[in-house]
Design brief:
200 residues; alpha+beta; SH3 type barrels; 5-stranded antiparallel β-sheet; 34% helix; Ribosomal protein L19; Ribosomal_bL19_sf; ribosomal protein; ribonucleoprotein; Translation_prot_SH3-like_sf
């Protein structure tokens, strides 16, 4: 009784394997044209790089990739120093900055935007900062990515020392949005700096 049951199971398994082979062969043939061929799937896929499988110093894959990108986009670590959290040479909110950025991917033309640094969003390779200025009596804000390849140059016009701006030790000086008088003074100072640089 047991032997007959085993034989029936073996026969059923063989029948299922034959049916699957037939169905796969049918799936690879095109009934309307014999000239049509189907590409065969590669037996082995591309191997994963070792530096992603085993990051150094126990870092996660994301941290490892961010470190590689930082080395590629900021080899001298100048921007990392400027927008660091605790470096003594870092930029503080309230500083006046001028950013020259490319207008298109060909990098043939560029435009300059100057304004006061409202705050910095530190997210590794995705670190960004926001500038605000008064243009034609209208408040304008621009957000830039620190490590973007579209940024040509970052120039510091005036650092925040706590004398010109109150509460300059804040992490963000968004209160300047409600202080048009201070913003007008900053805009006038930026404009005067531009005029003096053009004359020079």
């Amino acid at each position: 009784m047991i032997n007959s049951t085993l034989r029936c199971c073996r026969t059923a398994v063989r029948g299922m394997a034959t049916a699957s082979e037939a169905s796969s062969s049918k799936a690879q043939t095109y009934p309307f044209s014999a000239a049509v061929t189907f590409p065969t799937s590669p037996s082995t896929s591309n191997p994963t790089p070792k530096n992603l499988l085993h990051p150094k110093n126990g870092k996660s894959v994301v941290e490892h990739v961010n470190a590689q990108l930082l080395e590629a986009y900021d080899p001298a670590s100048l921007r990392k120093t400027l927008f660091s959290r605790r470096n003594p040479l870092r930029l503080k909110p309230g500083s006046v900055i001028s950013v020259a950025s490319y207008t298109d991917a060909t990098k043939s033309t560029s435009t300059v935007f100057s304004g006061v640094l409202l705050g910095i969003g530190r997210k590794g390779i995705d670190t960004s900062f926001t500038l605000r200025n008064i243009v034609n009596r209208t408040g304008v804000e621009m957000k830039f990515k620190v490590h973007s390849p579209m940024i040509k140059k970052i120039e510091v016009i005036k650092e925040a020392d706590g004398k010109g701006l109150k509460l300059a030790r804040r992490a963000k000086v968004n209160y300047l949005r409600d202080k048009p008088g201070i913003m007008n003074q900053i805009a006038a100072a930026v404009k005067q700096t531009k005029v003096s640089s053009v004359k020079a």
